[in-house]
Amino acid sequence: MRGKNQAPAVETLRRYVELRLHNADWKDYSTFVTWPDEPGWDCNWVVSKYNVRASKKEDDGIIVPVVYNRLGLFCYDFEFESDPRVVTIDYQLVKRPSGWKVNAPIPDYPDISAAVLIKSLSASAENSRESPERRAQYSATARQVADAVSHARVSSR
């Protein structure tokens, strides 16, 4: 089961990863996973880029490694903890009657794209319905994440 036979599974995983990185709602990506629900998280891993690696056949499905360049952990109390590292997650996919599904792992914290997070924080910083204090917190955190992205680009050269 190599090459073209695994392509639909890999495409399912790409769609799942992209939805997660774009901070999609559960209803948008739940059709790509086997677990019935997820907890509500108050933190996200912040990712500058990712790379899907070659899939490997297993007894009950396939394993597709995804390499994430994580910048750190963002929590919704405006805390961003810079902790740059490269992490490989081996996703297990299984074939179901409705198509390929991600079977594991359920994330400890979901990943979010740094660009998506910065855009969201910046929009909240400009939202006149937010208090001046919260707007300043959104803005400061957006700057922290943007600085981490800039630092990661310089370090990878």
Write the layout of secondary structure elements.
Blueprint: H1 7-21, H2 26-29, E1 43-52, E2 56-58, E3 61-75, E4 79-96, E5 99-104, E6 111-113, H3 114-125, H4 132-155
Parallel strand pairs: 1-6
Antiparallel strand pairs: 1-3, 2-3, 3-4, 4-5
State the CATH architecture.
Roll
How much of the sequence lies in strands comes to 35-45%
Order of helices and strands: HHEEEEEEHH
> Which stretches of 5+ consecutive residues score pLDDT under 50?
none
Which features characterize this protein?
6 strands, Nuclear Transport Factor 2, Chain: A, six-stranded mixed β-sheet, alpha+beta, 4 helices, 157 residues, single chain
Word description of this protein:
There is one protein chain. The chain is an alpha+beta fold and 157 residues long. The protein has a single domain, classed as Roll (Nuclear Transport Factor 2, Chain: A), CATH 3.10.450.540. The chain has four helices and six strands; from the N terminus they run H-H-E-E-E-E-E-E-H-H. Strand 4 and strand 5 form a beta hairpin. The longest helix is centred in the last third of the chain and has 24 residues, at 132-155. It is globular, with a radius of gyration of 17 Å. The chain starts with 6 loop residues before the first helix and ends with a helix. The model has no long low-confidence stretch (mean pLDDT 93).
